[in-house]
Every structure is written in C-alpha cells, then in structure tokens.
Write a structure and sequence with these properties.
- The complex is a heterodimer of chains A (about 120) and B (about 110).
- Chain A is mainly beta and about 120 residues long.
- Helix content of chain A is about 0%, strand content about 55%.
- In chain A, a hairpin with a 2-residue loop joins strand 5 and strand 6.
- Chain B is mainly beta and about 110 residues long.
- Classes of the chains: A mainly beta (about 120), B mainly beta (about 110).
- At the A-B interface, strand 5, strand 9 and strand 10 of A face strand 4, strand 5 and strand 9 of B.
C-alpha cells in the first residue's frame, strides 16, 4: 500500500465514450502527477499539479482533460480516445517544500494504475 | 534534449546469479533515482544517489552513481524470483519536478 489509490483498475471503452480516472492520495502531499505507460514507450509524464494548480502539460492531446479539485484528488477525464491511447495510466504524488518549489530528490509515490483499453 | 538509455532492455537469469543493469545519459544530473515496478503495480522508489561516485547498498542491491553524474549502475547479488520486475532510472535536476524515466530493464529471475 503506497498511500495512492487509483480507480478503476481496469477500463475498457469505445472511441465515442466518456470516462474518468480517479486518483486519491492519503499522504498529505501537495503535488500530483499523471503518467502514461505503454508497451512501446517509456513512462511518459502527462500532467503535474502543484497545490491544485497545473504546472505542466506535456503536450498532451485535448482528449485528455485533468482536474485537481484539491491536493488529495486528481482526475483524468477521457473523451473520444483513440486505440493508441490504450495504456497503463499511473497517478503519483510527492511533497514539495514550497509552492512552485524546485527541489531535488523528490520521491514519487505511485498508485497501481488503471489499465485502459480503447476499442 | 536529454537522452536516457538503460541496458540491457531485457534480462532473464536463474535464481542465485548476479547481474548488473545500467543507466546512461548525455546530461549531468544532480541526483538519480532507481525504481522497481512489479507486474500490475506502479513503480516503487528503491534509492536516490546524489554524489558523484556514491555507492549505496540495499540488502543485495548495490547502486553506484558515476563520477561524472551522467550514469549509474545497479548490481544485484544472488538474484531471487522476488527481484523480478521493471527497473527504472529517473534522473532529477535542480530546475523542476518533471521526472523523466528511462525505458527500463525488464528482469526475470527464474526459480
């Protein structure tokens, strides 16, 4: 148990569906992340939120829409996805010392991921 | 653009054998982290190395950070099936939280 919970664990959706992935962290961290992990590519950073503010969007298509209502919850809203979006979507959290702080040696705590299949 | 490589890409060995995996980059890093990801789970941090030439030990795992802080190695002694997983290196720098991960080494230890 890492303190980061993701739901659902598995999701199958059609290209016209709308679904959301949920992430909750119980560690008191102030930064949360979405990563994509597919078979053919390394772990890719998608979004970063610091103190609920999005500080990084790594050129992610608009069919992925993140939402961070508070420091403990992170969502990834999905719509009109493509089959190539099938992957493991991982949420992570970390503690930064100050708002927007740039630090070294941060430790990422990952959830177990949502395995997404787009048909 | 930062180029991060890990080798070998795949490794399958018998229980009890020793192995070394590598993480190499074209950039200098202030520190580097190693994570292990088991099937069906997210990555878990194993260690952070900070100083060039630093060596850290975690039971049967020995981590080394290169003198120039551009490469790192992970040596496992007497591998066990529980060591099976994807080993990822993740360098960090002084200017952000954007964790970039290497492509990983997928290790399989057979009983």
């Amino acid at each position: 148990e890492t303190g980061v919970t993701q739901t659902p664990r598995h999701l199958v959706m059609g290209m016209t569906n709308k679904k959301s992935l949920k992430c909750e962290q119980h560690l008191g961290h102030n930064a949360m992340y979405w990563y994509k992990q597919s078979a053919k590519k390394p772990l890719e950073l998608m979004f970063v939120y610091n103190f609920k503010e999005q500080t990084e969007n790594n050129s992610v298509p608009s069919r992925f829409s993140p939402e961070c209502p508070n420091s403990s919850h992170l969502f990834l809203h999905l719509h009109t996805l493509q089959p190539e979006d099938s992957a493991l979507y991982l949420c992570a959290s970390s503690q930064t010392p100050t708002a927007g702080g740039r630090v070294t040696n941060e430790k990422l705590f990952f959830g177990s991921g949502t395995q997404l299949s787009v048909l | 653009t930062q180029l991060l490589e890990q080798s070998p890409q795949f490794l399958s060995i018998q229980e009890g054998e020793n192995l070394t995996v590598y993480c190499n980059s074209s950039s200098v890093f202030s520190s580097l982290q190693w994570y292990r990801q088991e099937p069906g789970e997210g990555p878990v941090l194993l260690v952070t190395v900070v100083t060039g030439g630093e060596v850290k030990k975690l039971k049967r795992l020995t981590f080394q950070f290169g003198d120039a802080r551009k490469d790192s190695s992970l040596h496992i002694t007497a591998a066990q099936p529980g060591d099976t997983g994807l080993y990822l290196c993740a360098p960090t720098d002084n200017y952000g939280q954007n964790f970039v991960f290497g492509p990983g080494t997928r290790l399989s230890v057979l009983p």
